Automatic annotation (TrEMBL), chains A, B:
Protein known as: Aluminum activated malate transporter family protein
Chief subcellular location: membrane
Superkingdom per UniProt: Eukaryota
Localization per Swiss-Prot or TrEMBL: Membrane
Keywords for the protein's UniProt record, in alphabetical order: Ion channel, Ion transport, Membrane, Transmembrane, Transmembrane helix, Transport
GO annotation, biological process: malate transport; monoatomic ion transmembrane transport
Family named by the database record: Belongs to the aromatic acid exporter (TC 2.A.85) family.
Xref: Pfam families: ALMT (PF11744)
Transmembrane segments: 12-31, 43-62, 69-89, 95-114, 121-141, 153-175
Membrane topology value: Multi-pass membrane protein
N-terminal signal peptide: none
Length: 420, 420
């Protein structure tokens, strides 16, 4: 329990904030004049805080707005159903009410099966259904339905605004910041892996120095980051301008970068298999020991430079500057890759796996350039930056005489897999 | 909207079931004697149905039990807090109550940050907090707290039992069945990919026949199956004996198989990159066209046989029989792999990626044998089945003279990556 708290003091603060919001709202009960005004409806303020208060500002705002809208729509519809049913006379009323509840519950439940609607409006739909049932049924038993509506709406407003206020002004946690950092740290983890991989892979087996390669497993968390990224992006949409982020910051571009980063991680996963083999004393390269020294320099360079490129991209995102210094690393790693390809023409071709990583890195770089121009990162000429990758392709093609020997030479650009 | 319904008629049935449960519970309002007994607490029956009713039996049972337990514990604690606070006199009572709410809310919120507790008891913790607040605070205002408790508990019981009854007896949907099918279909998708891969990869570029390789992308869903598998396994734990499944069916073993299947999918992902290259007219093998005919047969066999092995494993799971007919395929694919390795000794080594798939398949087979013995699949001698993979290793080693030429030959068993 203690360790978790050290990991993230934000969690303790969040717990305290939630306790504070709930205690504030429960004050309604202790002050006679307030309680007289609201009566039993005071419970709805507590219910609202429990359902609306979330970890990040975006989630709380989204829930608060959804809750408000859903409640209003449900009240309107519920009143309508109640009014129509009351026209049907004493015997018809329960039947009509029952039918309307059956209909609304069925439709709302079915709508929740659409993944997109579920992700965004899950909570609204729940509240809508709950409120509709309460309004249409309560109307059957309680005569002062308008009085009740007034009490309910005020308590729900009190609950929502308390939650939003505390979440927004007491040590706010921004989902946007979290998404921004998550995407950057994913890139950094892959970068660290690639930087270390070359050295690990070519280490002499008998070497007794135990390398501290725990960071080599960090990248594994990237493989399953999809859901948390989508969740954060959904929340971030609701957040107002804060820090370096505008209201309509291009959060979708982060999802695109995240997805490309996962593609890159999938390509790295088999590489990790080799390095595990290495540490258990079996080296695939032992088959062709004579090639080892030939390709060592090129492979290590390629891995190191693409790792550096990824790390540059990560720090460009963190600092919110266009990733201008990344192109030299990509050029260098492509050069190393082309060197390697010519070395391998007659030889052992294990490193093609590593070659696959570079197109993935290039795609990520292009995507981050796009983000830089969408989000107006501080840059001198954003349009020029965004076009650089294309120039790069033209620059690196000539050294490999791809046109003259189409069947014997492949360039690294041709290797680029069509990422979906 | 229509298409989704055709995809899964279970969803429409679920919507109707939910509507039915809600309508049944709302009957409390229409019958005078029932309403007199419960009064305003009747709303809690509706609230309970909305919160407890879920798609699968396991989820509903789990929620119902959690809801019941959490409510009881919260009532006990709430009474305690109310009693202690009332000892403190009129002025001390609100302060003590406020403190206790602050404390409970803070601790419960913090506990939710533990991922394991969150996955299992998220809902219980919410209900606990809600009920605790209601009881301790309501006690401050209402004198007949025991009468209210009686009403509440009965309505919650009515809501829970209605939900569980309808979910269990009207077209039940079992989370266990879904998990079982999901794991089997993941294996099948990978198998289809591998079966088709060899042919796709060695197809002559100019071939005008458009292959219907849409199934080649099916495996992509396996990459992100982690969360849904864990979710289903959590629900399946609650389900009673049904169909071929006992109450304590080894659901955790499914998670292990699922995780190994994902490992295999990560290894297949780069292969897909090549086949995309292929369809865009670029063939890595063009570098060394002369090797093509040499390795074609071995590679295609290897891919085909490991695909068949995976499909055998999938149908063994589906039929709940021990996967006895899978070993020949693994033997054949290992033989093909060893052939390929000797062919490649002096040549082009692109296919090592494909070689990596086989150890992953072997691991999956071992894991499914374990499931077969844990879950008592109908088998003649389950212990013998479970040991077969080890025998297999010994049988395939001799042909490759691994001892005499340690630096020039690797066997497929040595390639086996240490899967985490």
């Amino acid at each position: 329990k203690k360790k978790l708290g050290q990991d993230d003091s934000r969690r303790i603060i969040h717990s305290l904030k939630f306790g504070l919001a709930l205690t504030l709202v429960s004050l309604i009960y202790y002050f006679e004049p307030l309680y007289k005004g609201f009566g039993n409806s005071a419970i709805w303020a507590i219910l609202t805080v429990i359902m609306v208060f979330e970890f990040s500002v975006g989630a709380t705002l989204g829930r608060g707005l959804n809750r408000g809208l859903a409640t209003l729509v449900a009240w309107a519809l519920g009143f309508g159903a109640h009014y129509l049913a009351s026209l049907a006379g004493e015997k018809g009323e329960p039947i009509l009410l029952g039918l309307s509840i059956f209909l609304v519950a069925g439709v709302v439940t079915f709508v929740q099966f659409f993944p997109q609607l579920k992700a965004r409006y899950d909570y609204s739909l729940l509240i809508f259904m709950l409120t509709f049932c309460l309004v249409s049924i309560s109307g059957y038993r309680e005569d002062e339905i308008l009085e009740m509506a007034h009490q309910r709406v005020s308590t729900i407003l009190i609950g929502s605004s308390t939650s939003v206020f505390i979440c927004l002004f007491v040590f706010p946690v921004w989902a946007g910041d979290d998404l921004h950092n998550l995407v950057a740290s994913s890139l950094e983890k892959l970068g660290s892996f690639l930087e270390g991989f070359g050295v690990e892979y070519f280490k002499i087996p008998g070497d007794s120095k135990e390398s501290n390669n725990t960071f080599m497993d960090d990248y594994k968390s990237v493989l399953n980051s999809k859901q948390s990224e989508e969740c954060l992006a959904n929340f971030a949409r609701w957040e107002p301008c804060h820090g370096q982020f505008r209201f309509r910051h291009p959060w979708k571009q982060y999802l695109r970068i995240g997805s490309l980063t996962r593609q890159c991680a999938y390509r790295i996963e088999p590489l990790n298999g080799y390095s595990t083999l290495r540490s258990s004393g079996i080296n695939c390269l032992q088959i062709l020991a004579e090639f080892r020294s030939k390709i060592q320099e090129a492979s290590t360079n390629m891995s190191l430079e693409s790792g550096k490129a990824l790390k540059e991209l990560a720090s460009a995102i963190k600092a919110m500057t266009p990733p201008s210094s990344v192109t030299p690393h990509i050029v260098k790693s492509k050069d190393a890759a082309n060197d390697l390809i010519s070395l391998l023409r007659s030889g052992f071709c294990k490193e093609i796996d590593l070659l696959e990583v570079i197109p993935a890195v290039t795609k990520i770089a292009e995507s981050i350039n796009e983000l830089a121009s969408l989000a107006h990162f501080r840059s001198v000429e954003p349009m020029v930056e965004a076009e650089k990758p294309k120039l790069l392709h033209q620059e690196t093609n000539p050294p490999c005489c791809g046109v003259n020997e189409p069947h014997h030479v492949i360039t690294i650009d041709q290797l680029s897999p069509k990422l979906p």
